[in-house]
Amino acid sequence: MMYFFGGDETEGDAGMRDLLGGKGANLAEMAKLGLPVPPGFTITTEVCRYFVKNGKLPDGFEEEFRKYLRKLEEVTGKKFGDPKNPLLVSVRSGAKFSMPGMMDTILNIGLNDEIVKGLAELTGNERFAYDAYRRLIQMFGNVVMGIDKNEFEKHLEEMKKKRGVAFDSELTAEDLKELVEIYKRVYKEHTGEDFPQDPEEQLRRAVIAVFKSWNNPRAITYRRLNKIPDDLGTAANVQTMVFGNLGEDSGTGVGFTRNPATGEKELYGEYLTNAQGEDVVAGIRTPMPISKLKEENPKLYEELRKVAELLERHYRDVQDFEFTVERGKLYILQTRDAKRTPLAAVKIAVDMANEGLISKEEAILRIDPENVVKLLQPVIDPSAKVDPIARGLPASPGAVSGRVVFSADEAVEKSKEGPVILVRPETSPDDIHGMHASVGILTSRGGMTSHAAVVARGMGRPCVVGCEELQIDEERREIRVKDIVIKEGEWITIDGYTGNVMVGKVPTIEPQIKGELETLLRWADEFRRLGVRANADTPEDARRAREFGAEGIGLCRTEHMFFHPSRIPSVLKMIMAETPEERREALAEIYEYQRNDFYEIFREMEGLPVTIRTLDMPLHEFLPKREELRVEIERMRARGEDEEKIKEKERLLRRVEELYEFNPMLGHRGCRLGITYPEITEMQARAIIEAACMLKKEGKTVIPEIMIPLVSHVNELKDQKEIVKRVAEEVMKEHGVEIEYSVGVMVEVPRAAVTADRIAKEAEFFSFGTNDLTQMSFGFSRDDYGKFIEVYKEKKILPEDPFTTLDQEGVGELMRIAVERGKSSNPNLKTGICGEHGGDPRSIEFCHRIGLDYVSSSPYRIPVARLAAAQAALKKLEGTVRKDV
Amino acid sequence: MMYFFGGDETEGDAGMRDLLGGKGANLAEMAKLGLPVPPGFTITTEVCRYFVKNGKLPDGFEEEFRKYLRKLEEVTGKKFGDPKNPLLVSVRSGAKFSMPGMMDTILNIGLNDEIVKGLAELTGNERFAYDAYRRLIQMFGNVVMGIDKNEFEKHLEEMKKKRGVAFDSELTAEDLKELVEIYKRVYKEHTGEDFPQDPEEQLRRAVIAVFKSWNNPRAITYRRLNKIPDDLGTAANVQTMVFGNLGEDSGTGVGFTRNPATGEKELYGEYLTNAQGEDVVAGIRTPMPISKLKEENPKLYEELRKVAELLERHYRDVQDFEFTVERGKLYILQTRDAKRTPLAAVKIAVDMANEGLISKEEAILRIDPENVVKLLQPVIDPSAKVDPIARGLPASPGAVSGRVVFSADEAVEKSKEGPVILVRPETSPDDIHGMHASVGILTSRGGMTSHAAVVARGMGRPCVVGCEELQIDEERREIRVKDIVIKEGEWITIDGYTGNVMVGKVPTIEPQIKGELETLLRWADEFRRLGVRANADTPEDARRAREFGAEGIGLCRTEHMFFHPSRIPSVLKMIMAETPEERREALAEIYEYQRNDFYEIFREMEGLPVTIRTLDMPLHEFLPKREELRVEIERMRARGEDEEKIKEKERLLRRVEELYEFNPMLGHRGCRLGITYPEITEMQARAIIEAACMLKKEGKTVIPEIMIPLVSHVNELKDQKEIVKRVAEEVMKEHGVEIEYSVGVMVEVPRAAVTADRIAKEAEFFSFGTNDLTQMSFGFSRDDYGKFIEVYKEKKILPEDPFTTLDQEGVGELMRIAVERGKSSNPNLKTGICGEHGGDPRSIEFCHRIGLDYVSSSPYRIPVARLAAAQAALKKLEGTVRKDV
């Protein structure tokens, strides 16, 4: 029913969180370690549960309560209720799971009108004693009797006003004595009784109040939101009060066992003499760095150093501990794993492993892979003044400054003179060249997986999307937000970590991959089973990916290659072609470009596999929009323009209308293009195999994997594979070399997943395109789901955005089915993922679990993927869980 | 190796198709029955297989061949090669599966320069003898030696020209003698050898030619297309020739054991005196009805009657048999199950069951359910002259005539004066009222599952879609096709069975459900396990469905109710609403309409379940199209219209843009509407339950089933169910009555299928929306798949259109998974299908197999579904297969 803590008498330990709550268990653990914890005892959660259920304390409570109180008196050598040598205690709640600020605390229990005088005498500090008494009355009145804090506080304010002082600490002992009288009156007015003078009654009622607070509305709401069961109950900790404000030989502070900003191994923290914790918060005096204690109080410093060492060795992680010095005696009040910067987290983990404090595996498991990205992108200089004018969604990490441009062409033009940021309501494939030319992208529409967001992440461009406060006026060439107007050419800064948009240039810090991060990733590579590849469409992307540790390309999209300005005329010719011959002619013009693209990419990835997806692009995306054309024709008519020119526009409009689709996402794209226009697949297969042959002749090893997109039926694959095989044979014969290549499918249509056994008979690999698979499995268009996803999140209908983290229950189940069925008919089937989820740690863990062979992510997320893959393997092996960092 | 047929000597039977081929087996069967089959023998498929493999005939062939030839001589009393009493034979191929016209036949084998003279003498018909010889040389030359038929035919033509006659039959014996000489010369010129005079050599070489024809290119292609294995081989049938052209006591004819047009039980057919089969085809003389033989040749008539009776009793189905009378002796050459009209098929099946000839189960299994629809829709009068000007896709059955209108409003207006046909490039939900007002719908765009097609089928309106030859000029209000112009108000006729479009009124015949069809459907109801419900949105549909035998409504769509012209203003108000309160106000205006709709439908379906789907409609469908608005605004500007009016339009445009979706199919629809605008679901739940309460108070039983559409995650269902339950409780309390209602989901999103176990815990029923499930499983937009589906069909990538017949392998697999997982967590789960496939017989069979409880189809397909459901149950029970009818 109760457990003592303090020195050798300690009965509990850290393993007893169920019974003692997190706080009680940790106090016991520290006491057992020999740390100077102010002694006390914990009343278990059982008692709380009993009380909540029965409305009274259990039989035998009273006896045990007295027994423990006596024991506490013995250990402290003080006496509860004895004015000569008073024991003062606090009562604090502490449940199994931390519920910060949700439940109640009462300090200074054990004071009354008599004892306060004794305390004043004992400490020689009357002011201190009455201040403590005043606080007790207020806290007890508030927590136990439900009196509004303000009913007390207003008198304090009045008093300060009357005395003409600003801070509580400026009130005299006499002022506080007067205030105690006023507080007792307030107490009686609200409760009809006198403030209880019996210390034991105070304590008993405080404990009951703590138990009752388990079911206060705040706590209930908190538990519901954090999925904490309602029937756990809280423990109540009765602990001896210690005071840091008893003179110059007293004080309070916070210590870190290592530097939480840099990870350096040094005792770090702050100390404030003659103060209590709340004084630090109030900021009246500036605390000193702990390092200064080395000179000013070497004994204390040494004590703290030893405590730090003990704590770190015991908890095997950097600790953030609170302490108080009462008249020269050090007390440790609390310890917990320290929050730290991503930079520090990596250094600490690697250092600790090198010191032998933790294993490499643990080091790997301790780092949140998401934080790795943060180490690899420029960030806003923390010392810079930041004044955001608007905030959008942080779509692609990194902070950059550039001049505002409003169109892709402009971006290309203006970028020659310096960095530009492309600002658009939304982007489309027409803007690719402009996005490439810009250092960052900012849109007022779209979500985390809008075109801008996806492309920017792929390119590694910082990007903020859906910044709806911005009014982008393309005609006037300005952005309006609130009363601010930003003209074309003006500098802005966007922060892809936070979604913030700032006017002007805000200084940033450059990224680095070296030192401990390099070590950590090397370790990760030792443990992971999953291969890590990159989604890369250009030789530059490929090079970068390889630098970051990619073991191949998992997705090389070929459609971006078509968007190069110099190729657009040929692409248009291809689209307008009315016969296969015309189309072939246009394709011949694109052919050489394509082959060179592949040649360069293969060269960068020498010796590693490169998965190339055949064309997956609705042709109409190259053409002007139907409505733009219609409006233009209307305008031409209104202006009375040449009839011939109008007719020409109308011809174009007709073609656009022919290609128009109600749901382009589910339209004429993917392998459907290659099937209806086989000459496109022919051209691409030729370009791929010929590039490979050329390199082979140069003595280089090339491993092309040709991937057919949007396959729903095995016959689609058969059709395309036949073309690829035929062309490949031809080309290899022409060049007189043999290339090892394979043909597989992108599994992104639900039907492909459930018929995977049939498809796998024809496929050498599966690569899950989880972006589209998510769209089709949910029936969510990622261009449109912004219309309802916010409500879905708010109503908790979806636990998270399925385009960010793989929906394991549904989409993942389709993947699991596909892997199982695919391998059943083709045991050699290679499987991977190339959707956006390939760079998401939780999704990577799932991919590991269902037995994929590799994940493929954008180049910038390769380090994330390496780490996450290692963690997935280690979690599976050891069942250990990463600590929160 | 060989099997004799003819009289008592017959060795084979119908069960030996593998060995004897279909033809050989059937000849043996008829001979065993005692029918006067011209005797002969069958050389088995084994011999063919041996020959194909080894390029020679097997050992022992020669001996057996001679043995069987001798036996044939014995049985016929004629002698092969004997000019005095010559035996002539034919050699015909005959594989296990019928391959009509794919392989070869040679007639009149056994003639040579000598024997022809004997034959002339014996028959007293020199012309006949030389004609037979001429044919032999041509057929042998062509089939055995590969000489182009034309090489012979051209001489025949020349001869006729020279003689100045039009028909072969007008040539004299002398002419034919001359032709025989010419043919022999042609033969020698092409082969370098003389036409073989040895009858046995002729026969042997003919047999080998038949075996070789198994691998001619035509046959190979046919087998590939019809999935017939290549290694079966063909049998060769050597059969005594009989001749119907040996004078007035000879003749040839075709008989049916019952009337194949009406199903009447009567000997039916045609007879031509002194003629061979091919003369009937040549159409020189008109054959007489067999019934006339009753007077003209009572003996023959009686013989035929007996044959017919025997055949029908033996084959247990109506037979279509060929016969020849040679000099007064009747020979039966062939029999097979007769083709018949749908009307006849039903009557025959029911009559035969009533006669005890077949069982009820067989009667049910014999009818193609698709044919039932044909009995229930007006058809073009077969006697009418039909001259189609264009042909589209037959989207909804029935033939109708009406005046052309070009808009929905016009349709409503003009339909008051008489029937109209709505002609549109494509239809949209805005056109519903006009489609309702029209007797038929014709579009120039869209496929079998376009909006027009689906809605028309649902309404039972004949419909032709995708008639691309039509140029619909809405401005000039005319249709142009080739050089024909059809103006507004002119009559046209469309035929939803064939897709034909005709100018003017073409007479039609009205449908009927009675007599044998009624009986058959009643029988079907005894055997089926699947329930049959209707998709019905209006009281009229509900009534019709009930008349056709529906046992409930499986899908009542509520969005059509919103499109009623009188409700549009309120609906617009709802859409433009900016707060829930405004929206609630607008909904209150619609409320009463909705409640009355439900009241009427419930009343029609008293005692039967009615599944009502909550709103599933993208709101923007009610608004004008974005581009129309933009063009309109441009025009208003050009005309210098009032700035205020333009601004108002622009406001509307803004709302339209807010609601604009890139992929509306995957957008803000289904339960996503009810979740983001809970007041819509509230209103609908209230309307449903209140209507039910009203009827309950009138003493009527109502069984509402509320269906939540487009559920992908169980939480969506939970959210909507909570609203429905809350509102239902309220309403029932207000009315003081209890309604038994249930809440379930429409399973139409792949994710719902794979997470069915989770969803079924909250759902009382699943109804598969296979239209959308097909769209999302394949990633095919049914509005857009026309762009590639034709190529897919051509290239055989898909075996059939998955929107017409359920894709069992993929979409069906998702359904199977959903049923399995759903029932695993909720054994009481009720399951059904309400997509278009619910009316497709093959899909219904699949639904039976995976254990659904019911199918739901459009009212007009209810009889189809009843029959198909019975067949599914019977096939499962008995493993019997429906005969082709």
Assembly context of the chains: homodimer
Order of neighbouring strands in the sheet with most strands of chain A:
12-22-21-14-15-16-17-13
Please count the helical segments of chain A: 35
Secondary-structure class of chain A: alpha/beta
Features:
disordered C terminus
Structure description:
- The structure is a homodimer of 885-residue chains.
- Chain A is of the alpha/beta class.
- The first copy, chain A, contains 35 helices and 31 strands.
- In chain A, strands 12-22-21-14-15-16-17-13 form an eight-stranded mixed sheet. An eight-stranded parallel barrel of chain A has the order 24-25-26-27-28-29-30-31, surrounded by six helices. In chain A, strands 1-2-5-3-4 form a five-stranded antiparallel sheet, with helices on both faces.
- Residues 878-885 of chain A have low confidence and may be disordered.
- The interface between A and B is large, with 59 and 59 residues.
